[in-house]
Design a protein that fits this description.
Elements (H helix, E strand, L loop, with lengths): L1 H29 L3 H26 L3 H26 L4
Helix pairs in contact: 1-2, 2-3
C-alpha cells in the first residue's frame, strides 16, 4: 500500500516538473532580454536535475543520480560564465 502511494506521488511530481520545464523552456526561447533567457536556462537545468532524481527513485537506478550530479556542476559553471559575460561584455 505504501509503495503504491509513493509511486503515485512520484509520478505526479514528475508530471508537475515536466510541465514546469515547458514553461521554463518557453522563457528560455522567448525571453524579452538576455537576463530572462539566462534565468530560463538556469531553471531548466534545475528542473532537469529534479526530473533525473525522480527517475532515479522511480526506477531504482543510481545512474540517473550520477548524471544529475554532473549536470548540476556543468549548469553551475555555465550560469556563472554567462553571468560574467553579461556583466562585463567579455568572456575572460
Amino acid at each position: 500500500m505504501l509503495a503504491s502511494v509513493l509511486n503515485i506521488v512520484l509520478v505526479a511530481s514528475l508530471v508537475i516538473h515536466m510541465v514546469l520545464m515547458v514553461v521554463a523552456l518557453r522563457r528560455l526561447w522567448r525571453g524579452e532580454n538576455i537576463v530572462d533567457r539566462l534565468l530560463g536556462a538556469d531553471i531548466t537545468t534545475t528542473l532537469t536535475i529534479a526530473v533525473l532524481v525522480l527517475l532515479a527513485v522511480l526506477n531504482r537506478n543510481s545512474l540517473y543520480l550520477d548524471v544529475a550530479l554532473g549536470l548540476a556542476a556543468l549548469g553551475f559553471v555555465a550560469t556563472v560564465a554567462l553571468a560574467k559575460y553579461i556583466a562585463d561584455e567579455q568572456m575572460f
